[in-house]
């Protein structure tokens, strides 16, 4: 029996790397038994994935395919129907390798929080062939559900929800075979690496921001105003050094775009640094985050690194995943900020001040519960074995 991961994409998003590496540990299988579809094998090799999994290069678009798709899109208007042509081309060569003895793990965490996509396509393809499939470590909000998603959710052999709000929603929708375990990445260990010089000069606030909660157009958005007010306060009223921590390096989603805007705005300030993160793997980034006194993060798996190493954290969330994970860790709502639906320019600062004032209690709370919470992840293997 083999396990197949068609939705890994690539480790340019360190969250994808984290899920795949943690899944290796949970399964405890051989390299040959875990087959991962990669859209960028070079990146995944550089992150050490090839040492533990079998990487399969995702099919590249041919010139002929691009021409045919362009012509087809003239006649096909509905977006998911358009995408089916692409999914068929990209995924069928990989999916055809999977047999009835195998299990497909549909990873990606929040892939079901976006438009109808390849999660549906790959699951339906295998469901039609009576092959076992598991939605692996997911978060889904009421606002994310579509008819297609509800239908494909019924066709998974099992659904591994990574926080209780998702489990409650899916049960209310009448779905079966729902299992609740923490996100797989909680089990990963920090890997020591050289720390930036700012750690030698004092205490550090790590900040991770993304284009999902911000904008590269400047600081005139409400989030931008929140961010500037926060940074100005830290510089003027505390002795903290600020370390900007990119976590995703994919084209237009690259966290460094926003981070560089911030760094350039404060170019004259010596207490703001940008981590050279693209040369670090997920576990090394976790080590850097673990050394922060406080962390503020928009990327879920950056926040998970902070939680798992007991760093007092503000989650700059925008969906059910942030609320659900914080709830299951029994953290107060004052440690959460919805970076998309802000109502004033003080919310990031207010959350920072709360966490700064209560950092010892928050750290102690996490130290008391994180081991037992994280240990639940290992139960996911028993769930797979029962299918």
UniProtKB/TrEMBL annotation:
UniProt key word Transferase: yes
Any one GO molecular function term: transferase activity
Domain Polysaccharide pyruvyl transferase intervals: 13-319
InterPro entries, sorted: Polysacch_pyruvyl_Trfase
Keyword NAD: no
Coiled-coil stretches: none
Keywords: Transferase
Protein name, as recorded: Polysaccharide pyruvyl transferase family protein
Organism (species): Bacteroides uniformis
Highest classification ranks of the organism: Bacteria, Pseudomonadati, Bacteroidota, Bacteroidia, Bacteroidales
